[in-house]
């Protein structure tokens, strides 16, 4: 096969440019200083920081073309390469620039550039083409398919794949230097030779290498064997990648044997996330099968060989070229399904690797399809074989579909096995969220060991994920009894009767009332132990031991009209930071007030009153809710009765398992541990920043935030959310905070809840840390720093900022391109943008919102623009947000019999870090004990 095609006007132009352009003149046109040294032209090298011109410029001769060589960094190339590197162009653009600059423009070149810049349409997604057009890639495939067929045949035999399958998939083989040698063989026709080399370089299939050259070699034009290498240069099986229409987009190369090298390499510029491997074949086969009366079914897998294995047994299959299906890939199948008859929906079965990563990828892919398939064109299934179903269950563990299906000698039993192993996609979602293997969902005895609260929460999430069409995730196109076990019954029951106590009072007995108050006390104590104000552990112990009598007092107090704290707060001064003279006041209510505050927050934040609808009670109450048992976070009440699965606020995430009494509280009280929240904050910033080409970043802070929160703003935010939540209860409004003024009119109870929070937070008295005298705080401005109630209130007041920034991100981050980012940790606001203009827009929007909240947003840190890599290194090294993360707060351990109060949990032992912090706690060494300077033994 000859690499040259005579009669090309563009090739003649390339040769003309190479023969007529003086490289000295070209360098000067490009703004590169040139000087003469010993009869030789030298230029300042553009490839390294060159202070003494070290790049020799060699003019063209009868035997060679003009070129350059740097004797410091070993850069070597010709006039086309010099323009490419100076101007940041590809080969065709460099030819075009040279032709235009030297008055040699060609209509053929213009049309070639126009054709090259045409777009490739894949499904609904518009993709920029690879620099080499499909014609060049087809030509390269021809080279790969005629080389080293023996190596390919041996690999096929080892994988038990037939030559027919390989021929249908157009497999080839790339030995080292396959393309370099091919191009070198066409050197006699310079125009064709240089054009092909440029095209393959632009496609990334051939790459230049800098090597130390002797003087003679440096004076030689282009030595392909010494200065270039193939991208696939270590002996790989080549898989051509085509779009759904059959257009060639690039290649994947699979290594032959086990080695440290990557298993798969993909040609540069291949739009992996926007193409499905073998979609062109699979979709045509589905149409043919449908014409023959068969159901349209396609399997989605990870590996290229997995897809070919499924093809070998007569099934349609595509591979996602990654760990999960992208939006663009999902649209390919959705759009194709739209071309099928309504009575023949496309069955999509997710058959990824049988490991944790494969399960995670399957669950993510399923969610992507459910999100995009608004017209319900697809029927979904999840393939996960169980050991008990396999005749080969005593074999070594099987990971990928290829290995699994190779054990079948015939197609029919393999297909029947896959049908038996296809489950509702809910299985993938449940298993991934619970972090258990799917067998724990499918087998009744294992399902029964999963906590009830986790099952209920996941059932609610499933319904939301399915957009209310729960049948989509609980059924498959192949009904078989194995998939419809106890898990299926329980999910249906939770969805059909989401909250059995929805009608009537949720607390109907003295025992249930005591349970709610005891939960509030345990959470309040855990929250009080974490702060700078010393917690009276002995008082908490006495209250726990007398819980029954104490609870009666709480019930009586909640019936009263007076909502102010019953005594002044304890207070201490703490430093605002190194070098700052003014101290920060931390204040903490007495334990009686803390418990009542906690009870009210528990009743507002509870999900016992949810009815399963989108307007459910909890969606109206602002909070970032963390579900420990399933490691899930959702934000509610950000704007109206909405919920979001992607959070923008990371501090003070409410631990719903602790709040609802399903798990003991952590050291954060009702909040998720602080380090976990901070890690989530940093991870969010990393994810957003890494998706940008360049990162512009600013860190903002709300000046004296807690001291400047106003009563009128807090009342407005609490009023709108609590009022709407109260109305959502309909005829069950008597269930709203049932112990708070139970004899008042129903229309007054929600106002009482609002007034209680405001009176507990504004205008409080505190004991001055220095004098001990009671001091009154401002009734209209400033909330105490210390109580859990203040932490929750301080966080949700800024939900209005989050809502505006979320809308801005949705407006700017179109077409899956991240141009803007945002994350907040209480009053610590970080904004990211790909350019300064977007950063200014986002900052202005944030400042506008905070002004409406009567707050001042000020700059805390500005950063120079960074690349995504620099940003990642900057952030993970702690330089971008240094030392502002929360320190784990140590508890003083209480003694006792471990059975204070209602004792439904087993107490966990202290963690090592807590113990180390405890050893440094000054409170241990300031107690009034004999032998420690606080008393006498005499």
UniProtKB/TrEMBL annotation:
SMART domains: ZnF_CHCC. InterPro entries: DNA_primase_core_N_sf (IPR037068), DNA_primase_Znf_CHC2 (IPR036977), DNAG_N (IPR013264), DnaG_primase (IPR050219), Znf_CHC2 (IPR002694). GO terms for biological process: DNA replication, synthesis of primer. Keywords: Metal-binding, Zinc, Zinc-finger. The keyword Transcription regulation does not apply. One of its GO terms (molecular function) is zinc ion binding. It holds the Pfam family Toprim_2. Residues 41-99 form the Zinc finger CHC2-type domain. GO terms for cellular component: cytoplasm. PANTHER family: DNA PRIMASE (PTHR30313:SF2). This is CHC2 zinc finger domain-containing protein. It comes from Paraburkholderia tagetis.
């Amino acid at each position: 096969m000859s690499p040259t095609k005579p009669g090309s006007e563009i090739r003649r132009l390339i040769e003309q440019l190479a023969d007529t352009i003086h490289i000295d003149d070209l360098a000067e046109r490009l703004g590169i200083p040139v000087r003469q040294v010993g009869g030789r032209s030298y230029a300042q090298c553009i490839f390294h920081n060159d202070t003494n011109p070290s790049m020799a410029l060699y003019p063209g001769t009868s035997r060679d073309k003009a070129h350059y060589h740097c004797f410091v960094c070993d850069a070597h190339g010709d006039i086309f390469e010099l323009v490419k590197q100076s101007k940041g162009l590809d080969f065709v653009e460099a030819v075009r620039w040279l032709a235009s600059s030297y008055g040699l423009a060609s209509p053929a070149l213009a049309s070639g550039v126009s054709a090259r810049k045409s777009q490739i349409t894949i499904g609904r997604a518009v993709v920029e083409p690879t620099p080499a057009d499909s014609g060049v890639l087809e030509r390269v495939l021809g080279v790969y398919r005629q080389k080293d067929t023996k190596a390919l045949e041996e690999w096929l035999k080892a994988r038990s794949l037939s030559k027919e399958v390989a021929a249908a998939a157009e497999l080839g083989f790339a030995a080292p230097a396959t393309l370099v040698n091919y191009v070198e063989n066409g050197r006699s026709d310079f125009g064709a030779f240089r054009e092909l080399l440029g095209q393959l370089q632009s496609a990334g299939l051939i790459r230049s290498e800098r090597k130390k050259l002797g003087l003679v070699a440096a004076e030689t034009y282009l030595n392909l064997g010494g200065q270039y290498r193939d991208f696939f240069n270590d002996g790989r099986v080549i898989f051509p990648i085509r779009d759904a229409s059959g257009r060639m987009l690039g290649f994947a190369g699979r290594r032959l044997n086990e080695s440290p090298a990557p298993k798969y390499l993909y040609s540069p510029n291949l739009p992996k996330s926007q193409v499905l491997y073998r979609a062109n074949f699979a979709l045509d086969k589905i149409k043919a099968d449908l014409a023959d009366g068969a159901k349209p079914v396609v399997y989605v897998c990870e590996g290229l060989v997995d897809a070919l294995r499924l093809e070998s047994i007569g099934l349609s299959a595509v591979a996602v070229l990654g760990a999960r299906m992208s939006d663009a890939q999902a649209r390919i199948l959705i759009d194709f399904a739209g071309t099928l008859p309504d009575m023949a929906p496309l069955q999509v079965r997710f058959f990824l690797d049988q490991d944790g990563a494969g399960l995670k990828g399957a669950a993510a892919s399923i969610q992507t399809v459910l999100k995009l398939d608004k017209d319900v064109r697809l029927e979904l299934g999840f393939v996960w074989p169980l050991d008990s179903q396999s005749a080969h269950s005593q074999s070594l563990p099987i990971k990928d579909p290829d290995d699994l299906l190779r054990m079948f000698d015939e197609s029919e039993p393999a297909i029947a096995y896959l049908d038996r192993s296809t489950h509702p996609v809910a299985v993938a979602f449940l298993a991934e969220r619970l972090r258990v293997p799917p067998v724990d969902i499918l087998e009744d005895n294992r399902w029964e060991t999963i906590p009830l609260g986790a099952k209920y929460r996941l059932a609610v999430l499933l319904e939301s994920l399915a957009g209310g069409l729960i049948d989509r995730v609980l059924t498959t196109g192949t009904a078989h009894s194995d998939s419809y076990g106890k898990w299926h019954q329980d999910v249906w029951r939770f969805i059909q009767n989401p909250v059995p106590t929805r009608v009537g009072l949720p607390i109907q007995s003295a025992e249930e009332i005591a349970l709610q108050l005891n939960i509030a006390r345990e959470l309040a104590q855990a929250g009080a132990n974490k702060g700078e104000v010393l917690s009276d552990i002995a008082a908490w112990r006495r209250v726990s031991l007398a819980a029954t009598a104490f609870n009666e007092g709480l019930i009586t107090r909640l019936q009263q009209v007076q909502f102010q704290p019953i005594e002044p707060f304890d207070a201490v001064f703490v430093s605002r930071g190194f070098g700052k003279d003014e101290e920060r006041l931390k204040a903490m209510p007495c334990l009686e007030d803390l418990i009542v505050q906690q009870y009210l927050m528990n009743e507002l934040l509870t999900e016992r009153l949810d009815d399963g609808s989108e307007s459910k009670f909890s969606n109206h109450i602002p909070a970032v809710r963390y579900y420990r048992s399933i490691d899930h976070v959702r934000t509610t009440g950000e704007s109206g009765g909405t919920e979001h699965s992607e959070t923008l606020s990371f501090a003070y995430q409410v631990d719903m398992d602790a709040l609802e009494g399903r798990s003991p509280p952590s050291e954060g009280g009702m909040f998720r541990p602080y380090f976990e929240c901070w890690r989530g904050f940093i991870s969010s910033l990393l994810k957003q920043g890494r998706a940008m080409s360049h990162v512009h970043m600013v860190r903002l802070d709300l000046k004296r935030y807690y001291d400047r929160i106003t009563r009128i703003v807090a009342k407005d935010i609490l009023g709108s959310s609590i009022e709407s939540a109260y109305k959502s209860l309909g005829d069950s409004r008597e269930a709203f905070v049932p112990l708070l003024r139970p004899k008042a009119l129903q229309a007054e109870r929600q106002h009482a809840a609002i007034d209680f929070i405001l009176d507990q937070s504004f205008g409080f008295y505190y004991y001055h840390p220095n004098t001990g005298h009671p001091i009154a705080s401002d009734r209209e401005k400033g909330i105490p720093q210390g109580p859990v109630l203040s932490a929750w209130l301080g966080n949700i007041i800024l939900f209005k900022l989050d809502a505006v920034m979320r809308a801005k991100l949705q407006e700017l981050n179109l077409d899956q391109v991240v141009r803007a980012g945002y994350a907040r940790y209480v009053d610590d606001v970080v904004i990211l943008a790909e350019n300064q203009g977007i950063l200014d827009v986002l900052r202005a929007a944030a400042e506008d919102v905070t002004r409406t909240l009567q707050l001042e947003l000020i700059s805390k840190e500005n950063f120079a623009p960074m690349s995504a890599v620099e940003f990642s290194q900057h952030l993970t090294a702690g330089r971008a947000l240094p030392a502002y993360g929360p320190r784990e707060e140590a508890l003083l351990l209480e003694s006792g019999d471990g059975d204070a109060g209602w004792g439904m949990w087993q107490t966990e032992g202290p963690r090592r870090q807590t113990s180390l912090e405890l050893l440094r706690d000054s409170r241990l060494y300031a107690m009034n004990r004999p032998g420690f300077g606080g008393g006498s033994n005499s």
